Amino acid sequence: MRIFSGVQPTGNIHIGNYLGALRQFVELQDEAVPGGRAEPFYCVVDLHAITVPKDPAQLRENNLDVAALYLAVGIDPKKSTVFIQSDVPGHAELAWVLMCNTYTGELSRMTQFKEKSRGNESAPAGLFTYPVLMASDILLYDSDVVPVGHDQKQHIELCRDVAIRVNNRFGDVFVVPEGRFLKEGARVMSLDNPLAKMSKSAENQLSRISLLDDEAKIRKAIMKSTTDSEGSIRYDLENKPGVTNLINIYSALSGLSVEAVERKYEGVGYGAFKNDLAEVAIDALTPIKKRFDEIRPSEELKAVLRDGAERANEIAARTMARVKGYFGLGK
Ligand code: AMP
Ligand code: TRP
Does the N-terminal or the C-terminal CB of the chain have fewer CB atoms within 10 Å? Predict the structure, then answer.
């Protein structure tokens, strides 16, 4: 069973990304499947990142940061292939072939494009064809399963539709992948506004806990987080979204169930609860940060990405040869 997923190389990878995606990537690499173990490909999708202008030096740093974070959270390069998208030319090459088999009407209906372009005539064409590049990422590796957040559901459907369309024309060109939607309980909300998702791009640094934040920043963000005036630690998404979010984070990072957290903090005030949560977060993130600091400047990281790109290129070249054969491209 081949697994593919990607994360964009932007800074500020936060505990939402960790609990909602990265930590589940780690679990998947040990998943037993008939005939052995899952075979995951975890990619840093820098070609997707340049759909909006990026500072070149910063982008290269971010690529390495995300790759190092993959390893720091526990992705094991012996079990998973970790690589940078632009190191494998097949992604862009296959994307072109897929674009010729995707309808402009389909792309016009993508909600992410509509939100990001807002009808702006100067929106880059790459923002419009972003989902086709994503389909290319997936189909290039004959991926069976694609773990992603719910926000990517429409893109996965498009990928399947295009794969099926090409297969209907030629036969078995592509493996039609399945989305594996990551656990909803893993949705982490913003600390300053618990009605919005925690995000990499929010202006307020205190709205998130980034994986590489220092202890003081983690404490400050948690102590200042929005709660309510009731004063009890109770799970109630509708009436107490702030406290509920903090309970969720506590539970996800400590391994205690939500009920156990509620019981433990019965009659305790918000200040003491937040203090403890800060300690839980620091305990969970310190080993990740420590490992990141070791890996990030290391030769090991470069070697992992070199080997990853080599392995990815091997498979990509095979798929491209097959695709070109069907379409009558090349010699
Ligand atoms: P992004 O930050 O949009 O590049 O997302 C990278 C991955 O992290 C995707 O799989 C998202 O679904 C997941 N993710 C992003 N933000 C959150 C959040 N606040 N809570 C849970 N998962 C998230
Ligand atoms: N679009 C995805 C996101 O924003 C990232 C991504 C790019 C991806 N290519 C992918 C995810 C292929 C899964 C498979 O989160």
Answer: C
Ligand 1 in reach of 186 Cβ (< 6 A): yes
Architecture of domain 205-293: Orthogonal Bundle (1.10)
Q: Has domain 2-186+299-327 been given CATH number 3.40.1620.10? A: no
Q: Which pLDDT belongs to residue 181?
A: 84
Q: Tens digits of per-residue pLDDT, 52-97?
A: 999 999 999 999 999 999 999 999 999 999 999 999 999 999 999 9
| Catalytic residue status for 78 | no
Residues of the chain with pLDDT under 50: none
pTM score, two decimals? 0.92
Ligand 2 — pocket residues by CB below 6 A?
4-6, 8, 45, 48, 134, 137-138, 146, 148, 152
Q: Long-range contacts for 195-204 (Cβ within 8 Å, ≥24 apart)? A: 195/241, 197/16, 198/14, 198/15, 198/16, 199/14, 199/16, 200/10, 200/11, 200/12, 200/13, 200/14, 200/17, 201/10, 201/12
Structural domain spans, the chain = 2-186+299-327, 205-293
By alpha-carbon position, which residue is closest to atom 6 of ligand 2?
Answer: 6
* Mutate which of 7, 42, 46, 160 for ligand 2 pocket (most atoms within 8 A of beta carbon): 7
